[in-house]
Amino acid sequence: MRVIKFRAQQYKHGFQHGSYVTDNKDYHAILKESKNAPDEMYNILINPKTLGQFTGLTDEHGVDIYEGDLLRIPAKCGFEETTYNCFEVFYHDNECIGGQNIGFCMNRMHTQGSSGGGQGYKFTPESISKHGFIVIGNIHQNPELLEKQIKGSE
Asked: Considering only CA atoms, which of 118, 115, 121 is closest in space to residue 88?
């Protein structure tokens, strides 16, 4: 059975996880269970620009992977600590190619250090497990990971 849950940032606090509630206009919230009374629910207002759906996959450490997360293959040496490819998770509706590959995808979007090129990876449970991808942040809280940094070329 597929788990459907969302993550979004509160306006003044960190990320919240739960069901997404909206009126399709101005009201956007995450619905949460009360810790003190499990039968009670409450809404937490969120910034809709930070909303991301759970993909159904977890990383090498069991961390849930959400839309907007940034993934990388763990470093095997000191060089790879600062030089690596970062992959952004996104939902692709493929409207321009006639409905192929609809769903969650990841693509090498960001290069850190002097790393370039690299192979493409599929966003599948097998690929995530085989290559040991880990969540290193997300596009909302870690803008520094989105900047293309080419060391030594300045």
From this structure: 121
CB distance 100 to 86 below 8 Å: no
Could you write out the DSSP letters of every residue in 89-111?
EEEE--TTTTSTT-EEEEEEEEE
Those residues whose C-beta lies under 8 Å from the C-beta of residue 126, and which sit 6 or more positions away, are none
CA distance 56 to 104: 10
How is residue 122 annotated by DSSP?
-
For 67, the token pair is 């839309």
Residue tagged 């993909």 (tokens): 55
Domains and CATH numbers, the chain: 6-50 (no CATH), 52-145 (2.30.30.290)
The tens digit of pLDDT for each residue in 118-148 reads 566 788 899 899 999 999 999 999 888 776 5
pTM assigned to the model = 0.82
Q: How far apart are CA 93 and CA 104, in angstroms?
A: 9
